């Protein structure tokens, strides 16, 4: 009897430990820690700039501090829940998607009376009296590492039926952010030291009457159960190509079309849907994006790799795309062709990660699937004799991210491998052998 009790107690403890482990794993996804961008987040700042008879006017600023994850079209959607019975009298630079029930108001009708308003950015080209600085970009916000000046969005809101002092204002709760899809988790609003502003002549400082911040972090696990991209490999020393793993992004067999199908010539096939549902080209991996890494050449002091990004989604153009690659030799990048390049050093002692993105007005737009749906570049890297090797897959990336989401890599045992019976000849040796062969042929003809 005592043995049974001990066994029962032991199993109970093991069950508790296992449950705690699962909860820890779930929590780790919730906090959305990214080892390549450990401090990346979107911070939403509310600055109360004036009091009104029944509330306040605030400027809401959204700063994207993520190094390589941006908010693309159709843009951000921000929501919250009012703490009391607040209404929005007016907005500049943004609008709510619904007005709600404002029937109790006579005369002036509020812009929104909903308890939980949903706010979206205005489109470019709206009248100037509806704009403020950093607004009206259709909700598109660049990544901090790509373009800090465009990594901000803002709007102004006039709130009524609210507090009229620092002590009576109640902070909104339950903040949500779509960018444009799910993936972001927002913490509670916290009062912080008031923001200071410089006047246009930079001779006087003014201060917000009250400021609070909301921090939102991204989790790929919350955004989608499947990856959104995959990676394939090839090399000059092996004729085989390592493709993306089968069903890398899930197998959507019903939502794909063959590249030569007549349906592609029907008008409107490339028009995005409101639910952002993709229309993918039928492939074995079924990913919207494939990144291909090719080890192209091996010189005496340098080696060369080629990167090609292909879009298999017929309904989506990728604007301001970003590509992040982790590889030990990226600390010796000599030249990058056709892409802009920036090293990422999240940890000062390690420099093995780089961000690539398109050159403005040249290839910063990755077109939808089809003949133009790809961008490519080449890298020239200097060798470190102590570490460089072509053996055991060393020349291929450790991690690849596209638009901030980690791509699925092939299994290491499928990487292109060196021939087992011969050493690799450099291009210079191959050229020399060709020249010798040509000379021998010419001599033979003369004889």
UniProtKB/TrEMBL annotation:
<dbReference type="Pfam" id="PF25079">
    <property type="entry name" value="COB_C"/>
</dbReference>
<dbReference type="GO" id="GO:0010215">
    <property type="term" value="P:cellulose microfibril organization"/>
</dbReference>
<keyword id="KW-0325">Glycoprotein</keyword>
<keyword id="KW-0732">Signal</keyword>
<feature type="domain" description="COBRA C-terminal">
    <location>
        <begin position="228"/>
        <end position="416"/>
    </location>
</feature>
<dbReference type="GO" id="GO:0052324">
    <property type="term" value="P:plant-type cell wall cellulose biosynthetic process"/>
</dbReference>
<dbReference type="GO" id="GO:0005886">
    <property type="term" value="C:plasma membrane"/>
</dbReference>
<dbReference type="InterPro" id="IPR006918">
    <property type="entry name" value="COBRA_pln"/>
</dbReference>
<feature type="signal peptide">
    <location>
        <begin position="1"/>
        <end position="32"/>
    </location>
</feature>
<comment type="similarity">
    <text>Belongs to the COBRA family.</text>
</comment>
<protein>
    <recommendedName>
        <fullName>COBRA-like protein</fullName>
    </recommendedName>
</protein>
<dbReference type="Pfam" id="PF04833">
    <property type="entry name" value="COBRA"/>
</dbReference>
<dbReference type="InterPro" id="IPR056900">
    <property type="entry name" value="COB_C"/>
</dbReference>
């Amino acid at each position: 009897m005592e043995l049974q009790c001990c066994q029962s107690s032991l199993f109970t403890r093991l069950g508790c430990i296992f449950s705690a482990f699962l909860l820890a794993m779930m929590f780790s996804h919730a906090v959305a820690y990214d080892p390549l961008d450990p401090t990346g987040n979107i911070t939403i700042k509310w600055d109360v700039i004036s009091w009104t008879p029944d509330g306040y006017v605030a400027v809401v600023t959204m700063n994207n501090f993520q190094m390589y994850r941006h908010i693309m079209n159709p843009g951000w959607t921000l929501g919250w829940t009012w703490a009391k019975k607040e209404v929005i009298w007016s907005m500049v630079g943004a609008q709510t998607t619904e007005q709600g029930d404002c029937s109790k108001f006579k005369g002036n009708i509020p812009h929104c009376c909903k308890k939980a308003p949903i706010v979206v950015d205005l489109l470019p080209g709206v009248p100037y009296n509806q704009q403020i600085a950093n607004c009206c970009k259709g909700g598109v916000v660049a990544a901090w590492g790509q373009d800090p000046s465009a990594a901000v969005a803002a709007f102004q809101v006039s709130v009524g039926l609210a507090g009229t002092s620092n002590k009576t204002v109640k902070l909104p709760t339950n903040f949500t952010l779509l960018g444009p899809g799910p993936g972001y988790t927002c913490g509670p609003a916290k009062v912080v030291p008031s923001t200071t502003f410089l006047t246009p002549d930079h001779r006087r400082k003014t201060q917000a009457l009250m400021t609070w911040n909301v921090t939102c972090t991204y989790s790929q696990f919350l955004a989608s159960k499947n990856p959104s991209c995959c990676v394939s490999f090839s090399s000059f020393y092996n004729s085989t190509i390592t493709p993306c793993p089968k069903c890398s992004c899930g197998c959507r067999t019903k939502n794909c079309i063959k590249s030569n199908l007549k349906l592609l010539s029907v008008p409107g096939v490339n028009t995005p849907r409101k639910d952002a549902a993709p229309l993918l080209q039928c492939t074995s991996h079924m990913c919207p994006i494939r990144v291909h890494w090719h080890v192209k050449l091996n010189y005496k002091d340098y080696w060369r790799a080629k990167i090609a990004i292909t879009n298999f989604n017929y309904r989506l153009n990728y604007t301001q795309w970003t590509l992040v690659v982790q590889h030990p030799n990226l600390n010796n990048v000599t030249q990058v062709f056709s892409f802009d390049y920036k090293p990422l050093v999240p940890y000062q002692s390690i420099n093995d990660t780089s961000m690539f993105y398109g050159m403005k007005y040249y290839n910063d737009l990755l077109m939808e699937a089809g003949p133009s749906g790809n961008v490519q570049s080449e890298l020239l890297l200097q060798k470190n004799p102590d570490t460089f090797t072509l053996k055991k897959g060393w020349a291929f990336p450790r991690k690849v991210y596209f638009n901030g989401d980690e791509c699925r890599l092939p299994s290491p045992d499928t990487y292109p491998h060196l021939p087992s019976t011969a050493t690799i000849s450099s291009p210079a040796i191959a050229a020399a052998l060709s020249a010798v062969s040509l000379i021998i042929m010419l001599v033979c003809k003369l004889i």
